[in-house]
Amino acid sequence: MKSILIASSLALSLLSANALAHGDEAGSGAAQTHDEHASSMGKPGDPGKVSKTMEIDMNDTMRFTPAAISIKRGETVRFIVKNSGKVKHEMVLGSIEELKEHAALMQKFPEMEHSDPNQVSLDPGKSGELIWQFSKAGRFDFACLQPGHFEAGMRGHIVVR
């Protein structure tokens, strides 16, 4: 009996963990993964084909520097992202609608972990990179989706010409 109870508890905890995984939004009614969302602006870039490198700073004033970026269509960009703040921040690429939806989900599940190619999450004082090929022209967005950060104005945009 004890082994059945332990097995049941383990199964429930695994199901709960999977329900809170970043790419699984069944609870929000969304059928697409974030990889599919981000494909509206391009795809993960090949590190060997980087044509532009940009440094992005994230800080506790809930701002990105720079917050407005201009890129040529077809460029593969290496974003060197630094968290100069004292709390966790992230840079997530997507449309403003997708980012709003995901920010609301993050409010409900603040412990949600991220592992998608269109984002980088960083602890205080850490740096990381995000490589993306912008294959489509248009205006695209990025934001920090840590609970409350998007709502505080931590977002920016990318114009691809």
From TrEMBL:
**So where does this one cross the membrane?**
none
Q: Which domain of life is it from?
A: Bacteria
Q: Which UniProt keywords apply?
A: Copper, Metal-binding, Periplasm, Signal
- Pfam families, from UniProt? Copper-bind (PF00127)
Give the main localization category.
Answer: periplasm
The record's annotation in InterPro entries points to: BlueCu_1, Cu-binding_ET, Cupredoxin
Against SUPFAM superfamilies, the record matches this protein to: Cupredoxins
Q: What span is annotated as the signal peptide, if there is one?
A: 1-21
Which residue numbers delimit the Blue (type 1) copper domain?
Answer: 53-160
Record region (Disordered): 25-52
**Subcellular localization:** Periplasm
Q: What is this protein called?
A: Cupredoxin family protein
Natural source organism: Collimonas rhizosphaerae
